[in-house]
Amino acid sequence: MTKKTAITKNGRRPRPFPKGRPLEEAALEEVRELLEGKMVRRDLLIEHLHLLQDRFGHLAARHLRALAEILGLSQAEVWEVASFYAHFDLVKEGETPPPTLTIRVCDSLPCRMRGAEALAEALAATLDPGKVRVLRAPCMGRCDRAPAVMLGKRDLSGRNVAQLAAEARAAAADPARTRQAPPPAERLAAARARGAYRWRDRPPAAGEVLAALETAGLRGMGGAGFPTHAKWRIVRENVARAGEGHVVVNADEGEPGTFKDRHLLETAPHRVLEGALIAAEVVGARTVWIYLRDEYPALHALLAEEIAALEEAGLAAPGRIVLRRGAGAYICGEESALIESLEGRRGLPRHRPPYVAEKGLFGKPTLVNNVETLWWAGRIVTEGPEIFAVEHNGRRGLRHYSVSGRVKRPGVHLLPAGATIGEVIAAAGGMEEGHRFAAWVPGGASSGILPATLDDVPLDFGCLEPHGAFIGSAAVMVLSDRDDIADAARGFLAFFAHESCGQCTPCRAGCAKALQLMEGPWDAERLGRLGALMRDASICGLGQAAPNAFETVLRHFPDAARES
Asked: Which of 176, 253, 477, 561 could form an S-S bond across to 405 if both were Cys, CB 3.0 to 4.6 Å?
């Protein structure tokens, strides 16, 4: 007779083996050693994952099990967060870890224009796949140096195949060649010499600051264009009611064509840090958080050094400014998804704005501002509104344009908000030799594609909407008669399909379906219905704006859509 298993007091039979992955003492000790001297909190999960990835080159399942044990989280929660972000390599038992060296080649539009696809293929064929992994990556914020390439944490953009192969082989023998020194930015001593942080001797009244921002007419430079003074005032009121609040610097620019925030931080980081501290004083925030995209490792080192310098100089209390890394997720540029990531979770957008109580960081009202917004806010407060309120073509204000594509001098160019595409191209040195201006993208992949004939429209908020586009982050990409307009739109939709967080069906399925409908001659009617659905039903701006890519092509380049 078969012996029956005893039933426990809760009425269930005991398991013949422990549930889930067993905890390995050796892995637990390795993770504890790595975290020694560091805070162990739930919101630091992504930071701890970075430590593991940096130390071992991947995230082994046994280390994730140990990390879950230390943080008191379920294995499922740690795994779902780690697997959400593109820069983490998860390796289960029995699987082969990735090679020690990784080369990432950008496949966004400005880099494809400069031969990125052929470069990636040639590198993969040249290098030993067992020693060097070649990955195609979304925009890495180096469109001005296209094709953008990263060897580990080192920027090797603009190199050819032979140069990159030589660097990879040298890095195999010397890991230091995968790291890069911080950029030669204006450091604290130089910033103080020009007058930075003098306002701390007599902090300006909140009313004076808000009035200066309103007089200048500063609006959010991340894309939404919400009046800065109004946003700060709303957050200030909510912080007063809640008794606590936060300021977040959104430095997670990830949309193809966008790199102005990197430029501003690499050249004058204290203009941004000063603007963030002024914002914290005005709204009553305890902490300033900087969320920096992981594609900027040298900039991360620079900011860490300058924050430490501020603390040493007594200009910021220890822990007042907290620097955090993203992990390869474009969606985290959306402010509520960014907050989820700061709390150590997947970057899934929330339904309500973060300045509302219970919806901000750690349940407290939170001011989220783009890097350029804070760069200008600090200058307006310390130097006066007139430095920004420049009038041109009937518009007022200044902005930094990230200019890439078929121009002679790609880069960040400061121009009035009323500048036209012709003036932007002129500032970038004109068109490349042998190329004729044909089309342009005004504000990143989600802003739409416009024809060269619209060369008299000011690149400012509210001016491009009648043409089905918007200024967004002012990431201008210039296309010529040699470029395939329909292929550019397909590249944008492929990017959005890859970067969708997957939370809502209209965006998740809509981007993938649009991409299918854009293969071969486009079905204008079906794409039109799909675009309307995505715009009306998606949770956040990714799904709402993604249709601009194909809708503007159908509107302004119908022949390109038919002949695709």
From this structure: 477
- Is residue 364 a contact partner of residue 246, using CB atoms and an 8 Å limit? yes
**Whole-number Å distance between alpha carbons of 520 and 561:** 9
Q: Rounded distance, CA 288 to CA 318, Å? A: 11
**CATH assignment of 485-562, given 3.40.30.10, 3.40.50.1820, 3.30.413.10, 1.20.1440.230?**
1.20.1440.230
Q: Counting beta carbons within 10 angstroms of the beta carbon of residue 47, is it exposed (0 to 12), middle (13 to 18) or buried (19 or more)?
A: middle
d(CA 327, CA 161): 27
pLDDT tens track for 102-132: 999 999 999 999 999 999 999 999 999 999 9
**SS3 state of residue 103:** strand
Nearest Cα to Cα of residue 330 among 221, 246, 444: 444
Select from 3.40.250.10, 2.140.10.10, 3.40.50.11540, 3.50.50.60 the CATH code of 209-385. 3.40.50.11540
CA distance 136 to 134: 7
Q: Which residues of the chain have pLDDT under 70?
A: 1-19
Residue among 158, 116, 156 at smallest CA distance from 136: 116
The two three-digit tokens of residue 8, written as one number = 């426990």
Predicted TM-score (pTM) of the model is 0.94
* Interatomic CA distance for residues 485 and 400, integer angstroms: 25
CATH class of 391-480: alpha beta
pLDDT at 1: 42
